[in-house]
């Protein structure tokens, strides 16, 4: 794995704004974007499609070996391909998300995905969005960010997002769902969600997107000095 290509890792809580900021950084800087959560969704989708047991390690390994990350000049975010077919459009399903949360708890799958994630490190640079990007996947990154926000703010953001997508949503249910997700991410044995020791924590509760981006650009300039 090349070590001279710049990397910005962005880890954090669900709904903290890290995905939105990751996409904007990638577009503005024209760096490649890896959304690692979609890899776990891809495994969940494929396991469901093939009716596999997630504990059948040899079968899951075959799935992982046939997953590829493809990018294009028009879109900086990596798309996920399986057997030469783009499966990215199938990964936002609620059912797949539930399976993916179980996939992410399995240490052997996280380790299987490391080479694939490392393959995303290409010129001119990489924005790596996830939950263990700075602690496990790219510990050599010069700039590591950890995003957080209050539970209420994160729930309201998710509520507005789902409402705008035309879904029937209940704010109380979203709050409980985020609580459960936080507990699962923080307390799982495999790569628990914690800030890297040298990460900069950004609380986005009361910050607009421009303020967050300006802060990151300043931190990046300092990290390169």
Topology:
Blueprint: E1 7-12, H1 18-29, E2 32-35, H2 37-50, H3 57-65, E3 67-72, E4 75-82, E5 85-86, H4 94-103, H5 107-118, E6 126-130, H6 133-137, E7 143-148, H7 151-164, H8 171-187, E8 200-203, H9 209-224
Parallel strand pairs: 1-6, 1-7, 2-6, 7-8
Antiparallel strand pairs: 3-4, 4-5
Helix pairs in contact: 2-4, 3-5, 7-8
Describe the 3D structure:
It is a single chain. The chain is α/β, with parallel strands linked by helices and 225 residues long. The mean pLDDT is 92. A hairpin with a 2-residue loop joins strand 3 and strand 4. The protein has 9 helices and 8 strands. The chain folds into 2 domains: 1-31 and 124-225, P-loop containing nucleotide triphosphate hydrolases (Rossmann fold, 3-Layer(aba) Sandwich), CATH 3.40.50; 36-123, Rossmann fold (3-Layer(aba) Sandwich). The protein has helices at 18-29, 37-50, 57-65, 94-103, 107-118, 133-137, 151-164, 171-187, 209-224; strands at 7-12, 32-35, 67-72, 75-82, 85-86, 126-130, 143-148, 200-203. Strands 2-6-1-7-8 form a 5-stranded parallel beta sheet.
Quick take:
The chain is an alpha/beta fold and 225 residues long. The protein has 9 helices and 8 strands. The relative contact order is 0.21.
């Amino acid at each position: 794995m090349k070590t001279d290509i710049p990397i910005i890792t962005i880890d954090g809580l669900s709904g903290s704004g890290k995905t939105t900021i990751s996409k904007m950084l990638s577009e503005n800087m024209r760096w490649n974007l890896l959304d690692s959560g979609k890899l776990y969704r891809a495994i969940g989708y494929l396991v469901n499609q093939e009716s596999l047991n997630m504990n059948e390690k040899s079968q899951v390994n075959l799935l992982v070996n046939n997953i590829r990350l493809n990018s294009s000049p028009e879109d900086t975010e990596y798309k996920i391909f399986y057997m030469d077919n783009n499966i990215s459009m199938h990964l936002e399903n609620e059912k797949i998300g539930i399976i993916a949360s179980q996939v992410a708890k399995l240490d052997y799958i996280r380790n299987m995905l490391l080479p694939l994630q490392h393959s995303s490190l290409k010129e001119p640079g990489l924005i790596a969005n996830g939950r263990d990007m700075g602690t496990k996947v790219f510990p050599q990154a010069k700039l590591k960010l950890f995003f957080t926000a209050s539970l209420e703010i994160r729930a309201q953001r998710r509520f507005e997002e789902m409402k705008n997508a035309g879904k029937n949503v209940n704010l109380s249910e979203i709050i409980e769902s985020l609580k459960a997700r936080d507990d699962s991410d923080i307390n799982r044995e495999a790569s628990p969600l914690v800030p890297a020791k040298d990460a900069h924590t950004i609380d986005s509760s009361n910050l607009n997107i421009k303020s967050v981006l300006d802060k990151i650009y300043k931190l990046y300039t300092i990290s390169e000095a």
